[in-house]
Each structure stands twice: as C-alpha cells, then as structure tokens.
C-alpha cells in the first residue's frame, strides 16, 4: 500500500493527508462519523469550545466538551506519529516503518473524525512541544509511543462514564479498541511478549481509567497551548 510522504513544514498533517489514506482505512471511520456529525451538529450552539479565554482554550461542557477533550488527545498523537515518520529513528526496520505509518494514519483519521464532527464547536489546532523526545532514538520514540497509547486507553476508559449520549459512547468504544491495539503493538516492539503484561492490566485483567484532568496533566508536558478543562463534567 503506498505511503504518504510528508515534508518538514507540515508537522500537523493537513486535510490533504486524509485523501492520501487508503480508501479501506478511512471508510472504516466514515460510517461512524456520519452518525456523530449529526448528533454533534445539534449541540453546536451549546458550546463555546472553539473560543480562547484568559484561562486557555476552553474545551467546553457536556458531551461536546468530552469530544473536544478526545480531539485534543488525537491532535497530540497525530502530531507525534507524523514527526516519527518524517524523521525516522536510526536502524528502523521496514516492518516498524509500516506499523508506525499505519498508526499515524489511524491517528490522523481519528483527529479529522473529531474535527469534522465538532464542526464550528471544535477547538483550534494545538501547538505541541516534543523537545524532550529524541526522534533519532528508537528507545526514546517507542517509550513515548507506549506512554501515549497507554494514556489514550485510560483516557477513553475514564471519559466513558462522563458521556451521556449512547451514540457517543458506542463511538468512543470503537476508538478506544483501536488505541488498545496500538498500545499492544508498541509494547511488543519495546519488549517481545509484553503486549498484555501486568504493567498494562490490573489483577482483574482490566485496563485502567483516568479522569480528564489527570490525563491532561500528563499530556501537558507535550502541549504548549494552555487548555481549560474546568467546564468538563466530573465524577
């Protein structure tokens, strides 16, 4: 399958990249996106998440706020994997390139999925900070990828109970299952046989869950843009 070639001036992939994804991959999200766009459109007037305030970019409240929260995380992951493929680490294998390119394409599709669903209620593009990552080092890249994927799984799991719309909950479940596949693959690349070890699962063989504020505190190391999550639902 042909892989898209990105230039250094495009760290955050544009809409044109979606056209470069394979039809098979992107249409896997299209059916779900249609339903989400219809529901989210009815909420557009209820959120001011696209506006910046003195306290940072406001994610908004209710279900639209949770969607913007997910959108922020997908922006971060898409930007990271885009940079990974642009500046490949030393000794990367053909198989690793293929795996990481596929994950990049998934994260770009997730990002555009939320952006299109939220429409005018979507927050602006976030500015990222990857200065602590050595993209020339396999160990640094895969350790960061593992941290991002594990964080993403716990983020979706933690947000599930805050979602009121059954449609949103189903769609979040579809996305978190993809994130879990990524997490398992990255763990296997780091340490063969560790894809579902006891560092990923609890005593009941369940993935963990984190509250939005806890997730954003961790992700904040890599996001320059100040985010205001004070209006998100809590538990």
How would you summarize the topology of this molecule?
Layout: H1 15-20, H2 23-41, E1 52-53, E2 56-58, H3 62-86, H4 94-118, H5 138-160, H6 166-190, H7 212-219, E3 227-228
Helix pairs in contact: 2-4, 3-4, 3-5, 4-6, 5-6, 5-7
Gist?
This protein is mainly α and 235 residues long. 56% of the residues lie in helices and 3% in strands. It has a three-stranded mixed beta sheet, with no helix packed on it.
List keywords for this structure.
235 residues; mainly alpha; Ferritin; three-stranded mixed β-sheet; 3 strands; 56% helix; 3% strand; globular; disordered N terminus
CATH architecture: Up-down Bundle
The sequence of SSEs as H and E is HHEEHHHHHE
How helix-rich are the residues, as a percent range?
A: 55-70%
- Classification by helices and strands: mainly alpha
Low-confidence spans: 1-35, 41-50
| Spatial order of the strands forming the largest sheet | 1-2-3
Radius of gyration computed on alpha carbons: 17 Å
For the biggest sheet, the summary is: 3 strands, mixed
Please explain how this structure is put together:
The structure is a single chain. With 235 residues, the chain is an all-alpha fold. It has one domain (23-123, 132-228): Ferritin. 56% of the residues lie in helices and 3% in strands. It has seven helices and three strands. The chain has helices spanning 15-20, 23-41, 62-86, 94-118, 138-160, 166-190, 212-219; strands at residues 52-53, 56-58, 227-228. It has a three-stranded mixed beta sheet with strand order 1-2-3, with no helix packed on it. β1 (52-53) and β2 (56-58) form a beta hairpin. α2 packs parallel to α4 (94-118) and α3 (62-86) packs antiparallel against α4. The protein is globular, with a radius of gyration of 17 Å.
């Amino acid at each position: 399958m042909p892989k898209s070639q990105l230039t250094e001036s495009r760290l955050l992939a544009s809409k044109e990249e979606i056209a470069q994804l394979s039809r098979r991959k992107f249409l896997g999200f299209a059916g779900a996106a249609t339903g989400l766009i219809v529901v989210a459109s009815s909420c557009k007037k209820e959120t001011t998440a696209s506006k910046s305030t003195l306290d940072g970019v406001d994610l908004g409240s209710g279900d639209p706020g949770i969607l913007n929260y997910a959108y922020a995380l997908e922006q971060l992951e898409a930007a990271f994997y885009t940079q990974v493929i642009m500046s490949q680490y030393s000794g990367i294998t053909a198989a690793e390139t293929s795996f990481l390119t596929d994950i990049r394409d998934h994260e770009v599709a997730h990002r555009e999925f939320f952006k299109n669903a939220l429409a005018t209620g979507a927050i602006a593009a976030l500015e990222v900070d990857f200065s602590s990552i050595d993209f020339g080092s396999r160990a640094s890249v895969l350790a960061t990828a593992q941290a991002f994927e594990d964080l993403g799984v716990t983020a979706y799991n933690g947000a599930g109970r805050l979602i009121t719309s059954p449609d949103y909950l189903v769609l979040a479940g579809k996305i978190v299952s993809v994130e879990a596949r990524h997490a398992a693959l990255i763990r296997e690349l780091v340490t063969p046989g560790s894809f579902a070890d006891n560092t990923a699962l609890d005593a009941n063989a369940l993935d963990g869950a984190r509250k939005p504020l806890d997730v954003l505190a961790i992700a904040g190391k890599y996001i320059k843009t100040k985010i205001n999550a004070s209006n998100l639902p809590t538990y």
